[in-house]
Amino acid sequence: MNIVCLDVEGVLVPEIWIAFAEASGIPELRRTTRDEPDYDKLMRWRLGILKEHGLGLREIQKVISTIDPLPGARAFLDALRARTQVILISDTFEQFAGPLMEKLGRPTLFCNTLDVAPDGSIAGYRLRVEKSKLATVRALQSIGFETIASGDSFNDLAMIEASKAGFLFRSTEAIKAAHPELPAYEEYDDLLAAIIAAF
Questions:
Q1: How far is CA 152 from the centre of its chain?
Q2: Which of the chain's termini has less CB crowding within 10 Å, N or C?
Q3: Domain 17-64, CATH among 3.10.450.30, 3.40.630.30, 3.90.1470.10, 3.30.420.40
Q4: Residues 12, 151: contact at Cβ < 8 Å?
């Protein structure tokens, strides 16, 4: 039995931190898991910048409310879900993801959570599980699923490589060059066809 595991930001929706960087005028916040493989290091750095600028959850959620899925993402996800089970696995947070999941038709999402202080500042974050993407794929495999995975960033590579079939989607030239063994696609139709062929 197959199950497809997809990354979210950069694959189905724009990168939230990049959108917030542009809206807030803080270019340093454009850094994502495409640039920094160490997620804890990246998040501690982000939270430090938010604190320095006096920004919290409310400001980020205001920007998220203006974000739409990438063009074609909803149709791709609907077509995929009509054929097989799909789980979105993301390093984003419950407090960020809600409005975006609504726009994508409420797919199943496994993600993390933020620790938010009473004043709305973000005090920290809690991972659902260490190495969540790989851990989720391994757990699904342990209960009889064959996984097919796709993502765009460093933090997607482990789940892609551990799956029966795995694909890069709209990844960076550096990641594609470092992993020439992984098929890489730029268009949803091509990714959909590759996933279906892997069933």
A1: 8
A2: N
A3: 3.90.1470.10
A4: no
Determine the topology of domain 2-13+70-113+124-197 in CATH. Rossmann fold (3.40.50)
Is 9 a residue of the active site?
yes
Digit-coded pLDDT (tens) for 88-104: 999 999 999 999 999 99
| Share of residues in the chain with pLDDT > 70 (%) | 100
Told to judge if 152 belongs to the known catalytic residues of this protein, a careful annotator would answer no
| AA identity, residue 18 | I
Pairing of strands 108-116, 122-126: antiparallel
Catalytic pick among 7, 15, 91, 152: 7
pTM for this one? 0.94
